[in-house]
Write a structure and sequence with these properties.
Blueprint: H1 2-6, H2 16-33, E1 47-48, E2 79-80
Antiparallel strand pairs: 1-2
GO cellular component, one term: microtubule
InterPro entries: Tctex-1-like, Tctex-1-like_sf
Protein name: Dynein light chain Tctex-type 3
């Protein structure tokens, strides 16, 4: 999903809302099509690539025997997602 939205693009602040919405919507669409009885939470952050980096953290309370997480990192020469 990310490459389909951001592939070939350069960072442009004016497009961030559209890009993140598309990435989240497409990701959820693909996950739902798997037909699994899961609840999904999808978040997306796109930042301009710089020497300063980008750090984020989150926390969840869940059942480690049945719940899980997946993190996808994507980057090109002008941005990180």
């Amino acid at each position: 999903c990310i490459d389909g939205v951001l592939g070939g693009e350069d960072y442009n602040q004016n497009n961030i809302n559209q890009w993140t919405a598309s990435i989240v919507e497409q990701s959820l669409t693909h996950l739902v099509k798997l037909g699994k009885a899961y609840k999904y939470i999808v978040t997306c952050a796109v930042v301009q690539r710089s020497a300063y980096g980008f750090h984020t953290a989150s926390s969840c309370f869940w059942d480690t025997t049945s719940d899980g997480t997946c993190t996808v990192r994507w980057e090109n020469r002008t941005m990180n997602c």
